């Protein structure tokens, strides 16, 4: 008899609730309209806050990166001459940075003269005789020559678009030189196109027929920015130079008419 009483006994909490399971959705009371409206408002507010937060991150990220790199560059350049001023007892932040800029400016002025060019050529001759340093110097000189304001024979000539690696796909590159391929029937004019594969430091060289090259209306600086940024600065419309020239010729005619 005692065992039957224990098996048929019901807990007091279940007896008060009438034996209903509060977690059962079929037996739970229906939600009121106010609670559903409150949940919808919370969802809209949460999505609006997250969207505005991401917008702020997108806006502030390039600003923060630019500020960080600029600040690091100022401290790096300032460190060249700031120890000299510290020994002289002058502690002014930014004075070393200004001195470095003036030093670079006067180096450019000095190298532009015949005496500076002679001194620079001697130093370059010594560097090119060093086993490992000459390769680093040659690579860095080619990159700096590409963005140099002076027209150098080793600089990038034009921005080029070639069909690579298969039909229907294109690659950005830079025309570095022209080559004449001598054949039995006729000579073929080829262009040496440098296609970067790792920013501007490493790339492939292709010899492409000059007729098969698309020459866009982009400057060398714009082409470098497109490659370094991973294509994020790519213009929405790219026109060949011939078409752009024809469009410029049509504009004055339309104005005259």
Main sheet specs:
4 strands, antiparallel
Please list the strands of the largest sheet in the order they lie side by side.
1-2-3-4
- Ends distance: 115 Å
User: Would you report the number of β strands?
Assistant: 4
* Principal-axes shape call: flat
Low-confidence stretches are 1-10, 12-23
Nearest-integer average pLDDT: 77
Radius of gyration: 35 Å
Percent strand: 5-15%
Order of helices and strands: HHHHHHEEEEHH
Put simply, the count of helices is 8
Could you say which structural class the secondary elements and strand pairing correspond to? alpha+beta
Helical fraction: 40-55%
Characterise this structure.
The chain is 53% helix and 14% strand. The protein has 257 residues and is α+β, with helices and mostly antiparallel strands. Among the domains are: 34 residues; 72 residues. A hairpin with a 3-residue loop joins β3 and β4. α3 crosses α4 and α4 crosses α5. The longest helix has 55 residues. 7% of the residues are buried.
Give a summary of the structure in a few sentences.
It is built from eight helices and four strands.
Topology at a glance:
Layout: H1 2-7, H2 12-16, H3 33-87, H4 95-112, H5 114-127, H6 133-146, E1 158-163, E2 170-181, E3 188-198, E4 202-209, H7 220-228, H8 241-256
